[in-house]
Amino acid sequence: MSRLDRFYIDGAWVEPRSTAVTSLVDPASEAVIGQVALGSEADVDRAVTAARAAFPGFAAMETAERIQLLERIAEIYRRRMGEMAHAISLEMGAPIRLATKAQAPAGLAHILEAANVLRRYNRDEMIGKTLVTREPIGVCALITPWNWPMNQIACKVAPALAAGCTMVLKPSEFAPLSAPLFAEILDEAGVPAGVFNLVNGTGTVVGAALSRHPDIDMISFTGSNRAGALVAKAAADSAKRVHQELGGKSPNLLLDDVDFAKAVPAAVRACFLNSGQSCNAPTRLLVPRTRLAEIEALARAEAESLMVGSPLHESSFMGPVVSARQFERIQALIEAGIAEGAKLLCGGVGRPEHLATGFYVKPTIFSGVDNAMSIAQEEIFGPVLCIITYENEEEAIAIANDTPYGLSSYVSSADPQRARRVARQLRAGMVHINGAFADFAAPFGGYKASGNGPEWGRHGVESYLEVKSIFGHA
């Protein structure tokens, strides 16, 4: 935690120009374990100036050199993977097993994929007699959340480096441990001074300053819809590019031909992974009305089997949620579900009985949920699953699409062709068939209120490129 009082700007760890700090709270114990420096507009100016000065030289770097740079970053990241997993577990409460098996490796996967894209990517193409080329957009502001910290940081930083952009990263002030470790990795790998800069701070100060800064060419933001709207409005005056990955309320359609004994427990675990703190979590379970009693029993049994406990215990499936504010918000929405008349199958308000402290939430399942209820429409961002019944396939698709969001969807069927046919009718940027995992080479992004501008893989790299037409090329 030695870097929490410093920012990484222009290739060095520097003292903030602001004196503001915030407490770092361990979500498992509620104890204050450190103080985090919070940046100011002056700190942002300093970082942006460094990034602007570094841009011409870095943009001109040969592709082969850029690939080698990403390979060095990956090598060092791999060596420090254990440190990264422990930092993530401590800062946001992810069980150490999840942090080791998924959270930390996701960062490495994006670095490796960015290098893979460069190996096969051609920035030039001839369209008729015109040369169409792609060039780095410039200085980018990267604003990331706390729930999958390394996944979100690396899926922005790695493609930005691959494209030839320079950047200023503002990680979440609620998860400030993994970002400085990532900065150390980039520094050791030899990322040129000024190419990558790190400024901690709040969204209202540092995020707002980055969004409106005239020398920022692009904003890539992941977070809530409310904050995303503020970023977009602040960026509008300078007409900078804005990419947003926002919220979700993903449906999980179990069609009537699935093996419910397997599909229902898998659906419960998918929803409660990372304590439900995933934008693409399948939080609405759509099931045939005629099988509801069987499905309720399976879902309750699976939820009650999941271990909630210390992130440091290998047996813990769920740790705490990230903060007191997040805990209280989830509790309020559970209370709203009860007040609206949904049937509480298990869980409910308060901590699990065996845990006296920490921001732990009971794995909670509601049945008898109407899709118009607040718990079916609002992104809870916690371990709360809503079971909604349907009469036929057409109604299931209509319910799935009846949401302001469109990030992800899930479909299970014994017939893969049927599942694919249903998938094509879902208004979402991603659909998982029969529990398929996401692909780091494929685009990650959503429709409607879930944002704009895909991340990951080739599409992620292209997000950081401008397109130029050169007419009359020989």
Tell me what the structure shows.
This protein has 474 residues and is α/β, with parallel strands linked by helices. It has 2 domains: 7-246 and 450-470, Aldehyde Dehydrogenase, Chain A, domain 1, CATH 3.40.605; 251-439, 3-Layer(aba) Sandwich (Aldehyde Dehydrogenase, Chain A, domain 2), CATH 3.40.309.10. Helices cover 41% and strands 20% of the residues. It has 15 helices and 22 strands. The chain has helices spanning 41-59, 63-79, 81-92, 96-120, 149-163, 178-189, 203-212, 225-236, 260-272, 292-305, 324-339, 374-377, 393-401, 416-423, 457-462, and strands at 7-9, 12-14, 21-25, 32-37, 124-127, 130-136, 139-143, 166-170, 196-198, 218-222, 241-245, 251-254, 284-288, 343-346, 364-367, 384-390, 405-406, 408-412, 430-433, 447-448, 451-452, 465-470. The strands form 6 sheets. The chain has a 7-stranded mixed beta sheet with strand order 14-15-16-13-12-18-19, sandwiched between helices. It has a 6-stranded mixed beta sheet with strand order 9-8-7-10-11-21, sandwiched between helices. Strands 5-6-22 form a 3-stranded antiparallel beta sheet, with no helix packed on it. Strand 15, helix 12 (374-377) and strand 16 form a beta-alpha-beta unit. Helix 1 (41-59) crosses helix 7 (203-212), helix 4 runs parallel beside helix 5 and helix 7 packs parallel to helix 8 (225-236). The longest helix is centred in the first third of the chain and has 25 residues, at 96-120. It starts with 6 loop residues before the first strand and ends with a strand. The mean pLDDT is 97. Residues 13-470 form the Aldehyde dehydrogenase domain. This is aldehyde dehydrogenase (NAD(+)). It catalyses: an aldehyde + NAD(+) + H2O = a carboxylate + NADH + 2 H(+). GO terms for molecular function: aldehyde dehydrogenase (NAD+) activity.
